[in-house]
Write a sequence for this structure.
């Protein structure tokens, strides 16, 4: 039994499977690249003008395929963590990438952090290939990872081959806790592979899951590489293409908001680079109907598996508990009526209107106390805690309504930034936003005498 397991691991980790794809004649060859999705399937919709999303990406890839040979590749880091929701996202990503025609996905540290069973399942059931030139995995579950992938272009009986290699920087191996995963030195891993491929292929591409500075060193060490796609850069790529001699180094940005396109034509002397660009996935591109249906399926899975109910919930300190905004309204009538007509007072409806009311990542900023034992659980059991309510800003109010804590309610800008962060509210300015939701003044005689 152990001998058989060893042979399986040897096959998975050391033997390179080389899928080949033949293309028909057309104008150009486009290497389309994305990376570091970190769980961002679609824009969250928290503000106007958001970019990104796999649905828009599907649309642009389909448009490019009409006149070109398109080779989509992924740099790595599809998930952002290793919880159940991350596993579901990983499967949705893989289905979407299959629809888009991705030929490979370079393995990042986030893939390794996911469940070994998920990685094993996806590596054996999907039509695109996992790639890594310097990762060895010895899980009991076979994980098929290729050390390189060769893509073959055929026109008028003439063959042209492109090899893709992929690495994970040793810098990120410290985050990998499993003893079943070995990350080799990238340079040591690449050197023999590039030597082997030098006479086999016409062009080499490196998917470098590494900081930009390290990718620059690869370009200096291996001038045979014709294109380096690098990761772990800025969220929004600026000065997107850097050249080391004749080797371009380019980043697709982070969080799935951009897509890179390297355009080549075939000449008698080989591939001729025409352009390299990184473009934002903005509202110029419509949502793909196919992928939109897949995203609805994702939300249905979250509902069916009741991920809201399975989210870890911790108690509040000092015996506090959440009571709901309507309880506050008993004494603070004017403030409650004002709040009811603000965007905060209707924030749960925005999730219902888009079908995201069962998504733990969305619900935490559209309800009160999610993640705590007395906080929001689901609509049926804790309807009184929907929307961004009084306690979202001022804290749990159980002691205050019982007249124990008379100094309750102080808040500041830091409380707002829990949800109004750079990802979901990049234009957030406290003074400007406060004017939209600030309370009307209360007259003390309006409140019960005992509170005075």
């Amino acid at each position: 039994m152990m001998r058989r397991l060893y042979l399986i691991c040897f096959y998975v980790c050391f033997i390179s499977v080389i899928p080949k794809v033949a293309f028909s004649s057309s104008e150009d060859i486009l290497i389309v690249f994305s990376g570091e999705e970190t769980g961002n399937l679609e824009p969250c919709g928290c503000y106007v003008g958001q970019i990104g999303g796999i649905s828009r990406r599907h649309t642009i890839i389909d448009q490019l395929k009409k006149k070109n040979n398109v080779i989509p590749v992924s740099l790595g880091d599809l998930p952002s963590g290793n919880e159940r929701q991350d596993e579901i996202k990983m499967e949705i990503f893989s289905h979407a990438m299959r629809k888009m025609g991705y030929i490979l996905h370079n393995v990042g540290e986030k893939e390794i952090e996911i469940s070994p069973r998920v990685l094993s399942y996806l590596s054996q059931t999907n039509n695109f290939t996992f790639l890594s030139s310097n990762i060895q995995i010895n899980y009991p579950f076979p994980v098929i990872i290729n050390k390189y992938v060769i893509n073959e272009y055929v026109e008028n009986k003439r063959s042209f081959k492109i090899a893709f290699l992929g690495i994970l920087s040793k810098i990120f191996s410290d985050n990998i806790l499993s003893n079943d995963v070995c990350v080799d030195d990238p340079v040591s891993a690449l050197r023999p592979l590039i030597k082997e491929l030098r006479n086999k292929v016409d062009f080499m591409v490196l998917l470098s899951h590494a900081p930009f500075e390290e990718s620059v060193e690869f370009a200096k060490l291996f001038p045979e590489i014709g294109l380096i796609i690098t990761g772990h850069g800025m969220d929004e790529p600026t000065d997107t293409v850097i050249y080391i001699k004749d080797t371009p180094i380019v980043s697709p940005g982070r969080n799935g908001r951009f897509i890179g396109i390297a355009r080549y034509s075939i000449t008698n002397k080989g591939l001729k680079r025409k352009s390299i660009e990184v473009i934002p996935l903005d509202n110029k591109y419509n949502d793909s109907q196919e992928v939109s249906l897949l995203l609805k399926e994702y939300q249905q899975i979250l509902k069916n598996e009741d991920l809201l109910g399975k989210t870890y919930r911790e108690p509040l300190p000092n015996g506090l508990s959440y009571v709901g905004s309507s309880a506050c309204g008993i004494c603070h009538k004017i403030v409650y009526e004002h709040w009811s007509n603000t965007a905060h007072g209707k924030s749960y409806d925005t999730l219902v209107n888009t079908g995201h009311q069962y998504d733990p990542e969305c619900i935490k900023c559209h309800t009160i106390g999610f993640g705590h034992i007395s906080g929001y659980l689901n609509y049926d059991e804790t309807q009184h805690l929907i929307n961004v309510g009084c306690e979202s800003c001022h804290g749990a109010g159980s002691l205050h309504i019982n007249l124990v804590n008379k100094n309750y309610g102080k808040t500041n800008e830091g409380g707002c930034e829990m949800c109004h962060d750079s990802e979901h509210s990049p234009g957030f300015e406290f003074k400007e936003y406060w004017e939209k939701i600030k309370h009307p003044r209360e007259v003390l005689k309006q409140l019960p005498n005992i509170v005075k």
User: Anything to note?
Assistant: The chain has two domains: 2-298, 314-451. The domain at 2-298 is CATH 3.60.21.10 (Purple Acid Phosphatase; chain A, domain 2).
